[in-house]
Specification:
Blueprint: H1 8-32, H2 38-61, H3 76-97, H4 105-131, E1 137-142, H5 146-156, E2 163-169, H6 176-190, E3 194-197, H7 208-211, E4 220-223, H8 224-232, H9 242-248, H10 255-276, H11 280-291, E5 296-302, E6 308-314, H12 327-334, H13 343-348, E7 352-354, H14 361-370, E8 383-385, H15 402-418, H16 421-437
Parallel strand pairs: 1-2, 1-3, 3-4, 7-8
Antiparallel strand pairs: 5-6
Helix pairs in contact: 1-2, 1-4, 2-3, 3-4, 5-8
Length: about 450
């Protein structure tokens, strides 16, 4: 059972395009104060079709097709308006460099921005949220721990989920027989229709045969780990066991994916690496003028299979022994320009464009001793950007940050389990958003 509608992004995409089309027709109507003819509409539709495709990409980068987007109504207006402002800039540049379509968009683009934004805001805020609303089913959560508390609070805090938890039972506090009896009673007297349970818990396994009769009453059972993953797009570390590694993490090569990813890595990193050479002199001059220290730093990091790799970065820290970022270094980090030299590491095959970020060896040793399954992230090549990085997690670099590292690992394990060209593309587009918002450090 899925608790989010996987078709929602397609519904959103379809109606967004419909809003673009309606806005185009209304723009022509308002611009000429007359009903536009089919030929006039078609003449504008041809160039605007190219823009629609670009605008959809901007919407995707802005997160407007993420499955959690519909949950956060308060953020939608600003997100949509910011995306629309970028879209109009794209349109203005497009018509400036491609003026052969015979349309004069100067005034039209201003009208279009207002009309299309109004339509999309109305659709997203006041129509779509009510299309999929259904009567929530009553659910019972069997398990314990911070992650399951987090799951309960997330589900109960949003009416968009198809059910809500009416209670939570800690299986460590009751015997399996008593646990089964409590569940049966709550199904009978409280109308529980869904039971979410931590199947890895030692006290739940003996009670599973007792739950089988509830299937005939229409009760649905969901593994808590699967639900947590679907809700948060990361793995619940406290619920993982060795069986999870066998079932979900495979070291067998994915020939088509691995080949395709390597081709993409080589093509993009070679192109960006060549283009970045034009930036090197300016960055080098800025670093030298700032504090006169070396331009590059070279570090050992842990790569695939635990092998050490050597990476180069533009220096962003002072050379006086203090952990202090230079003025130029702040800019280089905010724009990720300090990592441009790592493109050559991608070309050499030591890293990928997308993957778990490589860590310093002494931190890896400490993390591996304290955090279960930490070593799993080294089954694949590290990357310049990754699933954890686009989640706005502060990378634990200069001190042991246990909780931040665990959260980062949870996203890394999710990526290793679900890695695909589609997920890599999603990470790449979200990385662009991070760079443009200057939130990447």
């Amino acid at each position: 059972m899925t608790i989010t509608n996987r078709r929602e992004p397609f519904y959103l995409l379809f109606v967004d395009i419909l809003c673009f089309l309606i806005a185009l027709w209304l723009m022509l109507l308002l611009r000429t104060l007359s009903v536009p003819s089919i030929s006039v509409f078609y003449n504008h539709l041809v160039p605007f079709s190219f823009l629609f495709a670009a605008w959809i990409v901007v919407f995707f980068i802005a997160g407007l097709y993420d499955k959690h987007t519909t949950f956060f109504r308060s953020r939608l207006p600003n997100t949509i308006l910011n995306a629309q402002a970028i879209n109009i800039i794209i349109a203005a540049v497009f018509f400036f460099f491609v003026p052969n379509f015979g349309v004069t968009p100067k005034t039209s683009l201003g009208i279009y921005l207002i009309v299309s934004s109004a339509l999309i805001l109305f659709w997203r805020l006041y129509v779509f949220p009510y299309l999929a609303i259904k009567r929530q089913q009553r659910a019972l959560l069997i398990g314990a721990g911070d992650e399951l508390e987090e799951l309960k609070n997330e589900v109960n805090g949003n009416a968009r989920y198809p059910f809500s938890f009416i209670g939570m039972i800690d299986p460590a506090t009751v015997l399996p027989v008593e646990l089964a009896r409590q569940v049966r009673e709550r199904v009978q007297h409280e109308g529980v229709q869904v039971v979410v349970l931590d199947t890895a818990h030692k006290n739940i396994a003996p009670a599973l045969p007792e739950f089988s009769e509830l299937l005939f009453r229409g009760v649905r059972f969901i593994d808590a780990g699967h639900m947590y993953e679907e809700v948060f797009d990361r793995e619940p570390l406290s619920l993982l066991e060795h069986r999870w590694l066998v079932e979900n993490i495979s070291t067998a090569p994915q020939a088509a994916y691995d080949f395709g990813k390597r081709v993409i890595d080589l093509g993009i990193s070679a192109m960006l690496g060549a283009l970045s050479l034009f930036v090197y002199p300016f960055v080098a001059l800025a670093i030298l003028l700032d504090d006169g220290g070396p331009i590059f730093i070279f570090q050992e990091r842990v790569g695939q299979g635990g092998e050490l790799i050597h990476i180069a970065k533009f220096r962003s820290m002072r050379v006086n022994g203090k952990e202090q970022v230079t003025r130029v270094g702040m800019f280089l980090r905010a724009t990720r320009m300090d990592e441009l030299p790592q493109l050559w590491s991608v070309i050499l095959g030591e890293q990928s464009l997308i993957g778990p970020r490589p860590e310093l060896p002494h931190y890896v040793k400490l993390y591996a001793e304290q955090i279960p399954y930490y070593h799993v992230r080294y089954l694949i090549k590290p990357g310049l950007s990754g699933w954890a990085q686009i989640q706005n997690i502060t990378p634990p670099k200069f001190e042991i940050q246990y909780d931040a590292t665990k959260r980062k690992l949870a996203y890394d394990l999710y990526y290793i389990k679900h890695r695909s060209i589609w997920l890599d593309l999603k990470i790449a587009l979200k990385t662009i958003k991070t760079l443009l918002s200057r939130s990447g450090i």
